């Protein structure tokens, strides 16, 4: 009876200790950020404060059906995006591992062992004994100092970070598809204008040739006209090369081959997309909640903060409960002398075959020569690094918005001047050719007009493409577009089916819910796991 009372006392002590559990290490506090309350006055023309005008699918503001189709295909087929989606499921599984470590660990074991001793090894050798045993073992490290809870907190933050990393990649890929498509349409327009200028210069060469053949002008005019014509001809292959590269880039972004996207590109008139003149945006502080990369940086800081608690728990004793229960028999096989040892296999389920053990223990690394404290310090330094990275990510986000907004505004101003310049040079070219034909001016004036017309037309078309590209950069900087993933899921159904056939994933392959993906509302924090 005394023996059982002592066991009861041990478990009572452990129970009292476990009810007083604490969680060591710091609780995460959101770092302070210094942000302006409004955008600079010079950027106001690019923004509108009407939140109702915000477009999660911002690329639809360009009103281009081909572009909408390409973005959709990229979301469905981009291979980097699929890889990022699979990392989410990996992080889910690792979060499950962290949760599993919080609870008792049990195992079922069994064995059957036959042994035969040498006749010369012992005065009374055993012969042909077989031991059968089956048992159930369990152990539980009590989470008195919150080590496992901090591990779960860290794994949960890493999981949510994988979600926001996917969102950030989705935004980047979408923006790159739109930008490359705009570049493709811009190059098509530049090639068209170059070919039109070739036709114009061929007419000018014909006029110079007639003048030379009739003795009115020197051969110099003819050769200068040919040189300009060849220069313009040489521009076309260079532009066509860039066009091929843009198509190849689109093919990679869409996770397919160029032959598959070519019919899509030629299905509509090659026009440079034109977006709205303003973008909906409120205060700079909204970027902290809107941009996935900013949220991911904060989640990394949360994970690093929890790791400080994991390391701190090593300073304190670790308590554990262990226990086992099982059945064991020694089945004696007749010896050469006709005797038998032990019991028979039929006694396996006899109550006398029952074995059990129960106990409690602790370990406390009191002499570690500073290893534990230095590990805590290292984790603390990692946390501070993550905080600074988070702050820097916020500043970079604001910078990207401002840079894109300034570029958008200034390219529009430049486009107005270039448009007027193109109109002036077109008229000057027309007048110079007429005056040269009438013999009123020399051919150098015609050459200057033709050369400048080509350059200004190319610059004007390029700047129109730059306006659209800078608008894309502004949409990307604002962090919109990740909501697209709710339409078809983050990983193709065929991939999920292969994973289910290989491995029992349970409910872990369910799609991402809005609770896991959407940014916290103003004043809210990222969710903590339920233990």
How confident overall, as mean pLDDT? 83
Radius of gyration: 38 Å
Low-pLDDT parts are: 1-19, 332-341
How many domains make up the coordinates?
1
Query: CATH architecture, please?
Result: Up-down Bundle
| Largest sheet data | 4 strands, antiparallel
| CATH fold title | Outer membrane efflux proteins (OEP)
The CATH class is Mainly Alpha
Strand order of the largest sheet: 2-3-5-6
SSE string: HEHHEEHHHEHHEEHHHH
What is the straight-line distance between the termini? 38 Å
Q: Report the sheet-strand fraction.
A: 5-15%
The class by helix and strand makeup works out as: alpha+beta
Helix content: 55-70%
Number of helical stretches of at least 4 residues: 12
Describe the structure.
With 531 residues, the chain is α+β, with helices and mostly antiparallel strands. The protein has one domain: Up-down Bundle (Outer membrane efflux proteins (OEP)). The chain has twelve helices and six strands. It has helices at residues 2-19, 65-77, 79-100, 147-213, 219-253, 258-265, 287-290, 292-312, 371-437, 443-478, 493-502, 514-517, and strands spanning 47-48, 105-115, 129-141, 279-280, 318-332, 354-363. The strands form two sheets. The protein has a four-stranded antiparallel β-sheet. Strands 1-4 form a two-stranded parallel sheet. Helix 2 (65-77) crosses helix 4, helix 3 packs antiparallel against helix 4 (147-213) and helix 8 packs antiparallel against helix 9. The protein is elongated, with a radius of gyration of 38 Å. The two termini are 38 Å apart. Residues 1-19 and 332-341 have low confidence and may be disordered.
């Amino acid at each position: 009876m005394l023996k059982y009372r002592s066991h009861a006392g041990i478990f009572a002590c452990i129970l009292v200790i476990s009810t007083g559990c604490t969680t060591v290490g710091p609780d995460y506090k959101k770092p302070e950020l210094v942000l302006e309350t409004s955008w600079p006055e010079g950027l106001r023309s690019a923004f509108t404060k009407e939140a109702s005008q915000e477009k999660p699918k911002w690329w639809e503001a360009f009103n281009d059906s081909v572009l909408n189709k390409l973005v959709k295909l990229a979301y469905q087929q981009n291979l980097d995006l699929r890889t990022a989606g699979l990392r989410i499921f990996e992080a889910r599984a690792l979060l499950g591992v962290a949760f599993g470590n919080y609870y008792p660990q049990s195992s079922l074991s069994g064995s059957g062992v036959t042994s035969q001793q040498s006749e010369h090894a012992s005065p009374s050798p055993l012969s042909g004994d077989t031991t059968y045993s089956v048992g159930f073992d369990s152990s539980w490290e009590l989470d008195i100092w919150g080590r496992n809870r901090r591990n779960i907190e860290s794994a949960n933050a890493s999981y949510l970070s994988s979600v926001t990393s996917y969102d950030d990649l989705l935004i980047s890929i979408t923006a790159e598809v739109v930008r490359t498509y705009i570049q493709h349409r811009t190059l098509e327009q530049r090639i068209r204008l170059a070919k039109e200028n070739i036709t114009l210069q061929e007419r000018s060469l014909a006029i110079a040739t007639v003048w030379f053949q009739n003795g009115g002008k020197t051969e110099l005019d003819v050769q200068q006209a040919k040189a300009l014509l060849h220069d313009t001809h040489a521009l076309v292959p260079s532009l066509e090369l860039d066009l091929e590269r843009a198509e190849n880039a689109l093919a990679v972004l869409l996770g397919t081959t160029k032959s598959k996207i070519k019919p899509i590109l030629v299905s509509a008139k090659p026009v440079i997309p034109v977006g709205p003149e303003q973008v909906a945006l409120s205060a700079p502080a909204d970027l902290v909640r809107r941009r996935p990369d900013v949220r991911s940086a904060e989640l990394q800081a949360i994970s690093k903060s929890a790791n400080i608690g994991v390391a701190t728990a090593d300073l304190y004793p670790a308590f554990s409960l262990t226990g086992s229960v099982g059945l064991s028999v020694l089945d004696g096989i007749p010896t050469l002398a006709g005797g038998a040892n032990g019991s028979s296999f039929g006694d396996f389920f006899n109550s006398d075959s029952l074995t059990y053990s129960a106990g409690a223990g602790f370990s406390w690394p009191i002499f570690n020569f500073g290893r534990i404290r230095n590990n805590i310090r290292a984790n603390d330094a990692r946390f501070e690094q993550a905080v600074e990275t988070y702050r820097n990510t916020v500043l970079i986000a604001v910078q990207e918005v401002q840079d894109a907004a300034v570029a958008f505004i200034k390219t529009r101003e430049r486009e107005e001047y270039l448009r007027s310049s193109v109109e002036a040079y077109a008229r000057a070219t027309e007048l110079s050719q007429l005056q040269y034909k009438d013999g009123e001016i020399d051919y150098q004036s015609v050459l200057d007009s033709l050369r400048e017309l080509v350059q200004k037309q190319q610059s004007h078309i390029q700047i129109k493409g730059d306006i659209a590209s800078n608008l894309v950069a502004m949409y990307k900087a604002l962090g919109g577009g990740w909501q697209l993933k709710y339409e078809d899921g983050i990983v193709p159904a065929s991939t999920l089916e292969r994973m289910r056939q290989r491995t029992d994933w349970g409910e872990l392959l369910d799609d991402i819910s809005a609770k896991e993906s959407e940014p916290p509302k103003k004043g809210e924090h990222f969710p903590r796991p339920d233990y």
